[in-house]
Specification:
mainly alpha, two-stranded antiparallel sheet, 7 helices
């Protein structure tokens, strides 16, 4: 199996699981925050769904600075779970389309330095795995927000298994 397929499958798994958690957020007060200084649920959910689009543009060097990233985040911000899920699906399609045909050598040998990192070059494999981890981290954060907001979520929800 090609390395691209392995990495893309990891990202796809996290995206599919995140969709289940996001669907549970339907109807929760978007202004809910579990504590002082934490983002409201709306911001967290938007950040989660934007990861494939944002990370893709950062890792392919389309974005050169934080200002560009912040402007694009504002452009992608949505006000409903269904619209957010569309952003997530579109982002995943872009990622799969771009990386699916890359050879193992391209993924291992091409080194990049995203704008938020100083003087460190890592392979695309590193950053694609980082994208999966980034999605998993915020999926868990959203899961915790939902738990604290009183939603019926459990570890099966986190792993993308719907329950009644």
């Amino acid at each position: 199996m090609k390395l691209a397929n392995i990495l893309l499958n990891s990202i796809r798994t996290e995206v599919d699981q995140a969709k289940v958690v996001l669907e549970v957020a339907e109807g929760v007060d978007f202004d809910f925050t579990p504590g002082y200084g934490l983002k409201p649920l709306r911001s967290l959910a938007n950040h989660l769904v934007q990861i494939p689009k944002m990370d893709f543009r950062i890792f392919t060097m389309m974005m050169e600075n934080a200002e560009q990233a912040q402007a694009y985040e504002r452009e992608l911000t949505r006000n409903s779970i269904q619209d957010m899920l569309q952003v997530l699906d579109e982002g995943m399609e872009e990622v799969e389309e771009h990386f699916k045909d890359m050879s193992d050598n391209e993924l291992l040998e091409k080194k990049i330095t995203p704008f938020y990192v100083q003087d460190v070059k890592e392979s695309l494999t590193h950053y694609l795995q980082e994208m999966a981890t980034h999605i998993a981290m915020h999926k868990m954060q959203l899961w915790m927000y939902l738990k604290l907001a009183g939603k019926d979520v459990n570890m099966m929800t986190y792993y993308g298994i719907k329950h009644d």
